[in-house]
Design brief:
The longest helix has 23 residues, at about 150-170. Helix 3 (about 55-65) packs across helix 4 (about 65-85) and helix 4 packs across helix 7 (about 120-145). This protein has about 230 residues and is mostly helical. The protein contains ten helices and no strands. The chain has one domain.
């Protein structure tokens, strides 16, 4: 099973030329860039989306589960918080529901049947991408509301990374390959499907924590700035 949207799994020698120049996608990204032209966070989010969907990473994620993990981390932990900064929520609603929703969506799309279906059908593929990005955007908008206690927000940022890390640990130590979509292609990249899956889990478990740490530092800094202004 190959990813329909990003194309067939590329061989290593073909990766550099494997750009996705879908005109509809490019038009949407340009439109977003124009809409966010005065928002640095929004423009950064558009750049991240371009890396995820236009660069050779899109094609590589057809071949390697580990590349797909990088793709998903870019969506939920980099593009989504940047979009949340560009589109801030106006009121402090609860964080629990967006947290549960984004967690459920992330885990549901890593169920083997759901994952393989997304890489075999364009409509399901885009449903995966939009629900991952959309649910993460709801979570980060709730987290970044300034009126909320910094402690509460930090707790949920840590919890968000913890649940992703748990999923990553499960994938890292799985005894067998879980995804038919990556049953053959990793071999061309010098990896067995199980090794590729374990690498993906490790990325989700460790390096994916970097954007969460940056978000936590931003929240702590803003909280400290607000406290010092009150004291002053």
């Amino acid at each position: 099973m190959n990813a329909v949207y990003c194309g067939p799994p590329p061989l290593p020698n073909d990766l550099v030329a494997s750009w996705n120049l879908d005109p509809v996608l490019l038009a949407l990204l340009i439109a977003l860039g124009v809409a966010f032209r005065r928002e640095r966070a929004g423009l950064a989010a558009v750049a991240v989306l371009a890396i995820a969907f236009v660069s050779p990473l899109c094609a590589l994620s057809s071949a390697l589960f580990s590349a797909r993990v990088v793709h998903h981390v870019l969506l939920v932990a980099v593009a989504a918080p940047l979009l949340a900064l560009a589109l801030p929520a106006r009121r402090a609603d609860g964080i629990m529901l967006p947290f549960v929703l984004s967690t459920a969506v992330l885990w549901a799309w890593h169920i083997p049947a759901a994952y393989d279906a997304a890489l075999a059908n364009v409509a399901v593929y885009w449903f995966m991408q939009l629900t991952l990005l959309g649910s993460a955007l709801l979570f980060w908008r709730a987290v970044f509301v300034g009126a909320r206690s910094p402690v509460d927000r930090l707790v949920f940022v840590v919890a968000a990374f913890a649940q992703m890390g748990l999923l990553g640990a499960i994938l890292t130590f799985a005894a067998q390959p879980l995804y038919s979509a990556h049953a053959i292609a990793p071999l061309a990249w010098g990896l067995t499907p199980l090794e590729d899956q374990a690498l993906g889990g490790l990325i989700m478990w460790v390096p994916a924590g970097i954007p969460y740490a940056i978000a936590a530092a931003l929240i702590a800094r803003r909280g400290w700035s607000s406290l010092t202004r009150v004291v002053a």
